[in-house]
Amino acid sequence: MLIEAFNYKHWATRRTLAAIAQVDAVAFPATLAFVCQQLNHLRMVEELFRARLLGEVPPHAATNSADVPTLEQLAQRLEQLQAWYAAYVLALDPQQLQETVTFDFVDGRGGCMNRQEILFHVINHGTYHRGAIGHALDLVQVPHPADTYTVFIHEAEPDRRPHD
């Protein structure tokens, strides 16, 4: 299920990025800045959790930054992260999913989650922020894509819609 969930996350992120690309940057600079900040936060959190899964030094001291990469840079980094997480999940065996990872959050407080919980958090966290981005797109009248899991599975497997 985690493999499928990361495929879904990748699909939903690509659809969201395509919608963001339709924002008129001249007419709505604040909206574009907001969605880039949201994407930057997603990227940083995913990089932090990747480091935690690997037992590496955290790459960031916070979950956002004053300097926000361009939309193109963010899209590229999110694509790279997706590829990493997809490969990571494929390589795990069921016992590894239950292994506990102990780490410090960026606020300095300790944390402890198993690998499966971390992976679920990464998927769920993206869903939350895509929702905020969708609302911002609504406000500037850019249609945001339906990115629910039900839409994904029926698009990926059209034979699941026998009455269409």
TrEMBL record:
Q: Which domain of life is it from?
A: Bacteria
* GO MF annotations, alphabetized: metal ion binding
Task: Alphabetically list the UniProt keywords.
Answer: Metal-binding
Q: Which Pfam families match?
A: DinB
- Positions contributing to a divalent metal cation binding: H41, H125, H129
Annotated InterPro entries: DinB, DinB/YfiT-like
PANTHER family tied to this protein: PROTEIN DINB, SLR1116 PROTEIN
Q: Which family does it belong to?
A: Belongs to the DinB family.
Q: Please give the name of this protein.
A: Damage-inducible protein
Q: To which species is this protein native?
A: Stenotrophomonas humi
